Amino acid sequence: MNTAWKIKEAIKRNPAARYLIEERKRREYQKLAQTVSDRDFIEALYEKRIGRKPDLDRPTTYTEKLQWLKLNYRDPAIPRASDKYEAKKYIAERGFPALLIPTLAVYDSADDIDLQALPAQFIIKATHGSGWNFICRDKATFNLPAKRKIMNTWLHEDLSIYGREWNYKEQTPRLIVEPLMDTKPLVDYKFLCFNGTCKAVQVNHDANGTHYVDYYDENWNLFSDMSSGTADISGKPLPKPQCFDQMKTIAEQLAAPFPFVRVDLYDIHGRIYFGEMTFFPGSGFWKITPESYDRMFGEWMELPERTGVGECND
User: Fold this and answer.
1) Which domains does the chain have, with CATH numbers?
2) Which of 72, 140, 162, 223 could crosslink 215 through cysteines, CB 3.0-4.6 Å?
């Protein structure tokens, strides 16, 4: 099992450890946000994570182009589509209301959460975050007071400071509650769409206690050696989902207005559900190996015209 993922999951289950780590990280990055420009921050973190300096003026790789988009491209639909609550309205407007997982409640503060009004199983997510969630499998043992402090910390966080993703700065932090759709971990199908065309699929799944992140091409051929460094790769293809072609079509229709977006979908008992839309996976700092995939993905992305250069720390 990937050690980093195992440690991360253990921290998620320990509210006190999770709070201390997130608070320390927030203070560190807030200081950087006040003193380091977006471009300088991106260049330094990219070199640290990926091992080489990025070319932000003439980007060619996938990870470089994601950084270019952060610095040079502003589409007002992106903050909305990447907000876990507002995205549902976007999905409905695009003609896919049937994809939506029901919303049980939305809160501006964790202090407002009424546990008695919620079902026995549910998930609480920060609408403006990545990986900020708590899963309740049994309300009788769900320690809400211990988790409230952490969730209120999320609501005071500006996620843009961690990777300089400007869209998070434009969002209203909230907590959204949804029903738990299955008791076992779901297979997460993440369609990478370049200029409206799906060219690759990231598949997050669990097997025998190990979490895997695998990549396939648009025809469900496994890139058996590709890794983004976030988890183990299985090296073995999963069965192609029966509704794969339908999911790919949906993802492309949702992605059509954007130069790049990853559209996450689930197949739950034969029915397709929307997960989220991610415009900068890993904030563009995942080290993709072999590097040939980073170059290949970069070739698939045609950058748009600049729409303005901004700074998250204006």
Assistant:
1) 3-300 (3.30.470)
2) 223
